[in-house]
From TrEMBL:
Subcellular location: Cytoplasm
Family: Belongs to the Rab3-GAP regulatory subunit family.
Protein name: Rab3 GTPase-activating protein non-catalytic subunit
PANTHER family: RAB3 GTPASE-ACTIVATING PROTEIN NON-CATALYTIC SUBUNIT, RAB3-GAP REGULATORY DOMAIN
Superkingdom of origin organism: Eukaryota
Keyword set includes Transcription: no
GO molecular function: GTPase activator activity
Transmembrane segment boundaries: none
Record has Cytoplasm as a keyword: yes
Residue ranges of every copy of the Rab3-GAP regulatory subunit N-terminal domain listed in the record: 61-480
Pfam families, per database record: RAB3GAP2_C, RAB3GAP2_N
Domain (Rab3GAP regulatory subunit C-terminal): residue spans on this chain: 738-1335
Amino acid sequence: MSCEIKFHSSIGELIKLKRILFPNQDAGDDDGESWSDDAWTWKTDFDDASEKNEDKNSNDWIQSCLISTSHQFGVIVIAHQDKYAVLSSKWEKKNDKEVRKYYVTYPISNTSDGVGEKITSVLCVPIKSLQKSSQGIPDWICVILGFHTGFVRMYTVNGDLLLTEAFHDEPVNHLKFHCSLVNPAKQELTVVYQKTLIIIEGIGLFNSLRVCRSHIAKGRALYGSSELHSQHPPLHYKKLGLQEQNRINDCFVLGTNSPSQFDHLMTASVAGGFQARYNNSPPVATGILSLGSLPYCAWHYAVEGSAAPLLSDVAYALASKVTSKLFSKTSGWLGWGGGATETGASKPKDKQVIEPATPVYPRYGLADSLREALSVSVSPNERLAAITDSLGRVTLIDLFRGVAVRMWKGYRDAQCGWITAWEEVGQLSTSTCLEEEVSIPRTVSFLVIYISKRGIVEVWTPQQGTRVAAFNYSKGAKLINISVDSSADNDQAQCCLLNPDGRLDEVSVPFHCALKGDSSQKARDLHILQQLRTEHDASATSLDLLMDIRHASIVNQGLDFLLECRHLVDPDGFVKCLDSIVSQYGKAEALDAESRLLLSRCRILSRLARLYIHLKAMQSLPPDYDTVVNASHVSLQDVATILRLDGEEISRIFHRCTTPTLHPSTSQSAIEINTFLCAFELSIVHNSEDCVRVKSSLSGDDRQAIGYWIWGTAFSRNIDLLDELSLVLKSSSIAADDLVAMLVDYWLHLSSLALSNILHFHKLFRILCNSAGPENFNNIETPSPWWQNLKELLSKSCNLNQACCAALVVRSVMAEFEKRKINRLNDKNADDTDVNMDDSMNDWEDMSIDFCAWNVLSKQLEDLSFLSRLIHYRPVQLRETQSRSLDFLVEDKYFDNLEFSLASILQKGRGAISELIARWITQNLLEVRTVIGATETKENLDESMTDLSDAELAPEADKLSVGSSEEAVIIQDLFRDLRQHLPHSAQYDVIMLNVAVEYAAMWIRNPKHMKLLQRSLETVLPLHSHLFRHGICRTLWSMSFLPIFQDLAILMDKTGRLPKNFTSRKINLPSPDQAVPFLEITMKLLDTTVSSAMSSEIEPPPFIRYDDIWPTCEGATPMQEVSIRHRLVNIDLVLLHHQLAQTLHLVASLEIKGVHVFSLFDQRVGRFAFFKDLHSYPPLPSQEADPTVVYNRLQFLKQVISKAVEHMETNQSFALDYINQAIKLGYEWSIDVDELRIKYVDLLYLNHMDHLAHEVLVSIGSDEKLVSTLLVAAGRRLKMLLKPSDTSALSPMTTEWLLNGFSSDTDSFVRELETCDSGSTKTLALLVECLRRIPSECNDHFIASELHSLLTAMQRASL
């Protein structure tokens, strides 16, 4: 901020104040509430003249008053004659702003009888609180009044008398409160008489005032009266008499001075001469500056502890004091004395006996017999003092050296004050700066001089500085100055002017006004910049301030601030401001580098602002009717003619571009001019014209917004307006390549196309290319950077339809430029504007490298546009149907990964398209047969898969609802179009490979949905190539199966069963329920791996082809190459893992306990081969296994059969399946399968499933073990069937065999036989089977025949 006089506060009750201070004068009825008869009287000229004199005197009323203010202007005390008023400040809200006003708090009534004595001096002293929580803040204000009788009385702001003292019998000239700079705790009150000075210690005075105020508060609380006084502690003060000066008008206590040894010796020598005596230590003295006449200024020094009063003087003073106290006490008892507050006219008092003063003599001074000093104002640092005199001069005195430094003439009746300004220092790092340097900034003091009669306020830098500022102000005001310490707030008011109308204005001076030379002008500009930053927006005032700045660097800062403002109100005004700066700097003959840069910047900003205004005017125009009519009449032939395409190609492109996409609409709100201007930056090139570039740091959204602001309106207006827009764009100096980039970027963000937009885009692009200059298109043999940048921009676009159309437009314009170059080479005088494009366009000689590259790019974008149509199609009903089938829902966040561009496709590698199609299929939970169709599926199936039924090969669309079938047909049509352009990337086997991997990856992310893994395996089976099938099985095994399979096998071997939960296990399966289906899929995968590996040995490797979109491409290896690169598996190792998987599956599904699966394999050889790479050849177990392992296997398989038979009644197919697995596993382990079958037969007979047992008997080859088992089964039944009386016909051997022929533990498995004849019939058939298989010479044959005879006889008897 600059030097200024600003409003601080005002007196709200000015009329009341005047009535209190001037009761004999009419204060005026400004409020119009009083009624006077004078309103009906006519006034003469003499009366008018007298009223003017009265008004003049009334305006100078404040000059006759004594004024003092408290700290921070909280309280103002104004005194006149014997009356005084106390004003307190309050904050009020006016026009949504806080305004400070003063109201009279004492006296309460409008009239006052006064204090009875003439007031000659006023002082407000802040009394600080003694509480620690107050932090030194003043607690209350004490009002000290000095009277012409010599009394000094101290009051509260409410008028309560606290203390009365009479130090001398002369009028009190001044009351001053001084705080030492060396020791802030040392505070002193100075009472200045005509030639006597009283210095009162501040601490003792404050304690006495606190005691008196506390006593008054107690009296008011207890007795309802504040007129009770207490004996306060005695005041400690020094009374000094200033000698050898004729008249003293003002003085200032310099404080305690401790001179150096040299100064002490020099003073003794000057005062006493050569023979002078002196003390060894210099005495401590109190310095006093007295002002008056003869001499003009005198420096008195009162030496501490010297010039003690005589004993007689002390006795006389003590007796006078005792007499005075006794007289006051007696008068109080007899009722003579008054109260604490004096009312009415005081009676003449007896002259008190006054203590004599200690004489103090001046040590040196300034002698001027014709000059009389009137007042002194000391600077805040107490180094300088401004003295006013009777000759209208203001003299600046150096208080330490005692010399006059400077003098100002022509300042009669001047009032002086001081202002301290602090330098605004930013926050510095504590690591680089000391704390003292940070906490104490530089300060400077300014001298303020107010000439009341002339109404002028001047601000000077003291000593050798110039005048900082001068202001015109009201006459008759009063200058009020308050000294502040270094810890005070920089915004605290220090010097104020009290106007006669009650307005209090503050004089404010910033620190930079003290700077000199060239830096002063820069400081002025810095101040204007600071004032500019205080503005809330870029208003007209801000623009005027910017034009007032002179330094180029500061103008740049001001421009930066305006561009950062939230709102730039007037773009036209901003243009005028820029033109003014350009005119100012353009007239200069020689400019430095910074000024030249500013000039270029302002020119560029002016052009950009005019472009913004033109675009805004275009947007405000309503759409033209002709524009709508012309847009509706644009035909495909018109577009084909411009783009030089045939009808079939343009119709296909237009049909594809109108296909709905997922790109959002580009409609945006209008942008502000500052946002528009900040999007560009000045680019300076040596020996070239300055141009404007779009900022490289600009975000994509901001770049899109700027492009929409420039081109959005152009596409919605008449095409004839584009010529006008092109002229404005050319004059804006924006680089042509940036304009083209923004145009193409705007085009690529359009969601759909119209034929008229293609015409607009073609014309705008052609105009911008013409403005770029021929140097960008001259070279035919090397690629042009102009076309390379556009090619890169289109390659990165995800809107393939728009990019394809843009590539065709660019290619057509490029062809025109190619023709121009050829004509220019053939005929130098050929015109560039008229080019016939009908001939020579198909000649190979006329085609440049750029044109060939754009042909390739157009073809690539066209092919990928068909892929974009498929990827952006959402089969909602099909997805819901498959989601219910798989019990899985794909989150929408995965669809964001399907956005692609040409650059991303080329970067990812040759398998990117197939991977993208597979990801789209899996995210929509589709089957490959649904996408490809039934006919193509059957054509691609292998001959080994022909045993599948037609129902299994039918596409999923045939099994869906009508809506889902329609979606399936649409998908098949889109895929058919895609295969016409990208046949190799959309090949059946290639898609199947990638789909299998994607479904497996989806299952890894969602392991509880096991149907996803099943779908992945189902996708592998229909592959045409066995090598592909073998490779994808290897990939799935290492990616999805092996880690979980290994952890599950180790866990089940450790626990001996399938755990009930996996919460504390490191297995990527959510629950044990997922283990059985996982193991089933694992066995199927291993079976598929073995079958495909066996077929791959005789199958030739497939020939892999790629589409033309991949000329040379680096990236990830395609899945078909990964599949054929896998080495053939070790079939024996795969079978070993299959045996382990089958074992785990039997244990998990049948809930068998106590089985350690690794104990079923060879400990030294077999276990070492587990979980190795399937193509490796580790040592495998031989056919002859360890007997312990054989026994464990046999017992395990018997457990499997026993568990399976338990499920025979509830689920026979389930039990038979597991029994067959056990038998098959027994063959693989080289176990005697007859034992397993005999065990199975025994369990069947035990559970009365004789029909199943008879079917198994045929497959058993060993009759010896079988006969004993059958005979035991028959014996168990007869034991339950025969009665004790029936066994009497049997031989002893047979009877003993029935009782002890088989173990008793088997009896617990025997169920109670049916009472019907079916039980004996089945037993008879069982005995017949035994007799048929037992040799006749065997004892068992005798037992069986005897039992058969008995049972036959029993049946006959029953009949």
